[in-house]
Amino acid sequence: MTVHASPVSLRATGGPGQPEPGPALSELYRGFERQSLVPLWTEIGDLMPPSPRPRAVPHRWCWSELLGLAQRSGDLVPVGRGGERRAIALANPGLGGAPFATPTLWAAIQYLNPREDAPVHRHAQNAFRFVVEGEGVWTVVDDDPVAMRRGDFLLTPGWRFHGHHNRSDAPMAWLDGLDIPFAHHMGSGFFEDGPEEVPDRSAPARSRSERLWSHPGLRPVGVTGETRCSPIAAYRWEHTDAALREQLALADEGRPGVLEAGHAAVRFSNPVTGGDVLPTIRAEMHRLRAGTRTATRREVGSSVWQVFDGEGTVRVGDREWPVHRGDLVTVPSWVPLTVTAVTGLDLFRFSDAPILERLHLDRVELGNP
Ligand code: 1HN
Questions:
Q1: HSE-up (13 A, CA, CB side) for residue 81
Q2: Separation CA 362–CA 309 (nearest Å)
């Protein structure tokens, strides 16, 4: 939405539905400006387009470039109080330089050197991590150490204390997703430092949250489950991979289960409600067989995709890119998306769908517009 344009051009030209220019009209518009007012008749086209005209644009970031710059940051930039995280945000070129991948979603590459710690803090904003390569970092969420490994999807719901520590001799990079832009627009952000002492430095293979909650179809009796955010701190790749593999295998056996031919998908969900893992963010994993092309689809709300494995092409509106492991693509609201798999292609996706759905603003359209 462009609400920044000055009404100067309309002031000068008149036109349908517009008043005749002249000194009296100019004086009226100066009065509006002095009183911080904007008349609707100069803005209606941008405020009420027939269908969404997002300011965010389709864009692709190459993982190899991100990783090179993150490594260089690792050489030059310390991690500690103040900066808090060595995280480098994707800034959508349509959003005026703000560190926002879309109007609602933050996406960043975060990098931790061997044996390095990122300090403990908490914020109202909801966060997740997705690991496209590497291991060796534990994220400690409210004193529960959670291992991070390739393919894992990890949650840090809002207002939980969290810090990260790299226990290995290799650096590690991963994707952070947060609802920071949404919180920024809403004025809903809060932030607090945590204790200075290093959190629990044990390095268990499974977090306490997984030991309690990550048994398929079984929930602990007598434990009050979280309804706003999933109580599972980490969704492990072995489970995600098996779910996708079985969908495609069932399709081969002529049984239903896949989203569309050659395209399996799972949504990370809250075991207590069956709903999304976070109040503001939906996360999914998609698997396309080599040669599969998805139906073209557009929806209200924005999303970010990251290639987990394989090669393909992603078309967003009138842009098209080849994509490889780690590459990221933004899909603005109501812009059509088509994905084509050259090899087998695994893709992680997150979106603001829970916000749009709760406000009944969601719409989906299949096929080329
Ligand atoms: C944050 O706390 C993390 O916990 C990542 O890893 C990115 C961006 C802005 C503010 C806080 C993290 C962040 C962040």
A1: 7
A2: 29
> What is the arrangement of strands in the sheet containing 234-235, beginning at the earlier edge strand?
87-89, 106-112, 172-178, 127-130, 153-156, 234-235
Cα–Cα distance for residue pair 291/305, rounded to 1 Å = 19
CATH architecture for segment(s) 237-366: Sandwich (2.60)
Q: Which CATH class is domain 59-213?
A: mainly beta
Q: Residue 62: which region, alpha, beta or left (left: phi > 0; alpha: psi -120 to 50)?
A: beta
* CA-based torsion, 246, 252, 258, 264: positive or negative: positive
> In this predicted structure, what is the pLDDT of residue 14?
67
Report residues whose beta carbon is within 6 angstroms of any ligand 1 atom: 84-85, 87, 108, 110, 123, 127, 162, 176, 178, 180
Q: From the alpha carbon of 164, which atom of ligand 1 is closest?
A: 6
CA–CA gap between residue 64 and residue 220 (Å, rounded): 43
Q: So where are the chain's domains?
A: 1-48, 59-213, 237-366
Q: Cα-flanking dihedrals φ and ψ of residue 211, to 5°?
A: -60, -30
* Residue whose token pair is 């190459």: 62
pLDDT tens, position by position, 159-175: 999 999 999 999 999 99
**Model-wide pTM > 0.90:** yes
Instruction: Using the predicted structure, report yes or no on whether residue 2 has a pLDDT greater than 80.
Output: no
Identical fold, 59-213 and 237-366: yes
Q: Is 159 left (phi over 0), alpha (psi -120 to 50) or beta?
A: left
